[in-house]
Design brief:
The protein is α/β, with parallel strands linked by helices. The chain has helices at residues 13-24, 45-51, 94-119, 148-168, 195-204, 213-223; strands spanning 4-8, 28-33, 55-60, 74-77, 130-135, 173-180, 235-238. It is built from six helices and seven strands; from the N terminus they run βαβαββαβαβααβ.
Length: 245
């Protein structure tokens, strides 16, 4: 029987690439997002997966809503909110903070909790009953001027990852996170779309090119595989060496 995976925020950008990669790896993928159509246009992710011979199902879901959070064998928490709510500390209103926390940490918390409960009822497959991969950010690892609530939420997601790994490791549950750097997605917030910002990213990133969604998807694919059976509570940077600079 094929393993199953839930990928939140799977209609666009990094989540879309992760869903496509896991489907290519043989997972049956539940695609969870507030919208089916990609932000950048093109075919919906579920159509692409089926067109390539993969198996999936799309579910319209808001991760900040308790009743919309389900449970499956491998979970990838990718859905995130920034945009107009991501501001410097002193201009971050209560509603900005609450909106970001609802999607970026409360949603993953609820989905992780539901997933752990389900995984504890399942027999182990090799070393693991189940795997969780949380998509955080390099902004969760360092201070991010101008993005107070977003950076705080992503740092909290790193701690949630550690917490699950420590509390449920002996039960066969593996939990890791992936922290992307500057990734070209074409979606709002993509710094490569502005020449001034793009030049800053080039000057600050040791590697010779911008990151792409497939780079993040490859990291998730590894952490979701049996090859990563002794890695838990870790955060894998996918940033072209940004954090090493």
């Amino acid at each position: 029987m094929a393993r199953s995976a839930v990928v939140t925020g799977s209609s666009s950008g990094i989540g879309r690439a992760i869903a496509l990669r896991l489907a290519a790896d043989g997972f049956w993928v539940l695609l969870a997002d507030v919208r089916r159509d990609p932000l950048t246009g093109g075919e919906p992710t579920d159509d692409l997966i089926r067109g390539r011979g993969g198996a999936c199902e799309f579910a319209r879901a808001d991760v900040s809503s308790r009743q919309d959070c389900g449970q499956l064998d491998v979970v990838v928490n990718n859905a995130a909110l920034a945009g107009r709510h991501s501001k410097p500390l002193l201009t971050t209103e209560d509603q900005d903070f609450d909106a970001i926390m609802a999607v970026n940490i409360r949603g993953p918390f609820m989905l992780c909790r539901a997933s752990v409960r389900q995984m504890l009822t399942q027999p182990a497959r090799r070393d693991a009953r189940g795997r969780i991969v949380n998509i955080t950010s390099q902004h969760g690892m360092v201070g991010a001027p101008g993005h107070a609530a977003y950076a705080i939420s992503k740092a909290a997601l790193v701690q949630l990852t550690r917490q699950i790994a420590v509390e449920y490791g002996r039960d066969g549950i593996i939990c890791n996170s992936v922290a992307p750097g500057k990734i070209v997605t074409g979606t709002p917030g993509d710094l490569s779309q502005n020449e001034r910002s793009a030049e800053y990213v080039r000057s600050r990133t040791p590697f010779a090119r911008f990151g792409e969604p497939r780079d993040v998807a490859s990291a998730v694919s590894f952490l979701a595989s049996d090859d990563a059976s002794y890695i838990s509570g870790a955060t894998l940077m996918v940033d072209g060496g940004w954090m090493a600079y």
